[in-house]
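If you are new to this repository, start here. Below is one unmodified record pulled from the training split, so you can see the exact layout before writing a loader.
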Amino acid sequence: MSPRPERKFDAVLFDLLTALLDSWTLWNIVAGSPEDGRKWRAAYLRRTYETGAYRPYETLVAEAATEVGLTPTLAAQLASRYGELEPWPEVRDVLGALRRERVALGVVTNCSEELAAKAIACTGIEFDVAVAAERAGFYKPNPRPYEMALDELGLGPSRCLFVAGSAYDLFGTSSVGLQTYWHDRIGMTPPPNAPEPIAHHRSLYPLLELVRAVR
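And here is the target side for that same chain:
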């Protein structure tokens, strides 16, 4: 019998709050409208990209609200409702298939340890590794959160695929050599000079074929 061809990736790391969960809807509800929610979220994403060393997550969210003309108390409201986050419709199908095929799964997320645990519970998925910015000491796209997740998986970057929800992740993953699938659910405009992902889709379903590809 011929040996089974080696799969290209042994593990997949996911952005949590955008690639796996529909956090956009919750931000819009708390903000009061889709327009305000999207402006608030965009300001927050820029702030995490620029921040680097960890500052309290709710502080960044409050500052972003103020920046776009919203009340900073919305940050606490958002945090109190994290248990309402819903996974994208195909998350459990896709990640369940990967789990059955013994692909290691992890998340790397820009939030506190407490909120990361609440958000992970909303996915209904058991992960092998979970790294929050608070524990890493840095926000993505600083290399440290990705490196910590790889260390805890015991893998080099060539054996792991990252699934981004925001194009800001592409700066960080490229710096550590992680190939990246961009799950661009809502059609975001990437920041200037963002590195190219190896795949760019509005669904997670094409991820299965990519992970199953042999070397």
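Two things worth knowing about this chain: The mean pLDDT is 94. The longest helix spans residues 34-51.
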